């Protein structure tokens, strides 16, 4: 057997190392497991959450001008019933517009008081309770009441009774002097009282399209979706 020369031995040694290098498992990056991708270095957009929203608070006393979508009559509407309206002017804080006009609102009749036949004023009291934003979110709100009061009619009723009595007394006097006058006085006064009773009850109402101004009684917190300044790559 011939001895292997130096060049041939060196060739076989290098061949052996090459074979071992091919069969050896690849080295893994420090801190990662086999099968996992290394973390990306670019900034990615986070999932939508509370941090993506802008919180704004509309302060107490801010005016809210609305237009009624329906009429409200004291003869047919009672306390606790709802009504619908549309925002007539934008809600602003300083120079910033927070809510655009045309937004629907829901209100409630907080008081409905009928007038008496002879005395007492009619009263309608309204409050706004909810506002519906374009993103379909509904926010509760609390406003100071809007009030409409009927006219006083006690003096009017007394006038009707007095005029009836005077006319009756005059007619009675023509018919039978003093006794007739006394009878006419009583009869005329009674007729005047009946007229006052029949016509004295006032049907207070607010017509469709009326523009009403409310004021916030409590702060109104609103949440808006903020546009992201970081886009995913």
User: CATH homologous superfamily of the largest domain?
Assistant: Type IV secretion system, VirB10/TraB/TrbI
Which percent band covers the strand fraction?
Answer: 25-35%
**Architecture per CATH nomenclature, i.e. the level-2 architecture of the largest domain:** Beta Barrel
Tally of individual helices: 2
Given the helix and strand composition, which structural class is it?
Answer: alpha+beta
Topology, number of strands? 13
Average pLDDT for all residues = 69
Return the string of H and E elements. Answer: HEEEEEEEEEEHEEE
C-alpha termini separation: 68 Å
Given as residue ranges, the uncertain stretches (5+ residues, pLDDT < 50) are: 22-47, 196-200, 228-233
Quickly name the level 1 CATH class of the largest domain.
Mainly Beta
Helix content: 25-40%
Describe the structure concisely for a colleague.
With 233 residues, the chain is of the alpha+beta class. It has helices at residues 6-23, 154-200, and strands spanning 53-58, 63-68, 72-73, 82-87, 91-93, 96-99, 104-113, 123-132, 138-140, 146-149, 205-206, 211-215, 220-225.
Topology of helices and strands:
Blueprint: H1 6-23, E1 53-58, E2 63-68, E3 72-73, E4 82-87, E5 91-93, E6 96-99, E7 104-113, E8 123-132, E9 138-140, E10 146-149, H2 154-200, E11 205-206, E12 211-215, E13 220-225
């Amino acid at each position: 057997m011939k001895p292997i020369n130096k060049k041939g031995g060196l060739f076989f040694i290098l061949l052996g190392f090459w074979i071992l290098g091919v069969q050896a498992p690849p080295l893994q990056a420090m801190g990662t497991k086999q099968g996992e991708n290394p973390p990306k270095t670019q900034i990615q957009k986070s999932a939508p959450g509370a941090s993506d929203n802008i919180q704004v608070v509309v302060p107490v006393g801010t005016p809210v001008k609305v237009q009624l979508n329906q009429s409200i009559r004291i003869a047919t509407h009672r306390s606790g019933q709802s009504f619908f309206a549309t925002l007539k002017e934008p809600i602003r804080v300083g120079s910033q517009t927070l809510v655009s006009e045309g937004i629907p609102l829901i209100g409630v009749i907080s008081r409905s008081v009928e007038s008496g036949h002879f005395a007492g004023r009619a009263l309608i009291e309204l409050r706004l309770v909810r506002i519906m934003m374009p993103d379909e979110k509904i926010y509760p709100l609390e406003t100071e009441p809007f009030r409409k009061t009927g006219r006083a009619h006690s003096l009017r009723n007394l006038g009707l009774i007095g005029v009836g009595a005077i006319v009756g007394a005059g007619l009675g006097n023509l018919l039978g002097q003093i006794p007739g006058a006394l009878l006419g006085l009583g009869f005329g006064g009674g007729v005047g009282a009946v007229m006052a009773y029949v016509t004295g009850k006032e049907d207070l109402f607010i017509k469709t399209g009326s523009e009403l101004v409310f004021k916030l009684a409590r702060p109104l917190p609103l949440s808006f979706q903020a546009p992201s300044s970081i886009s995913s790559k």
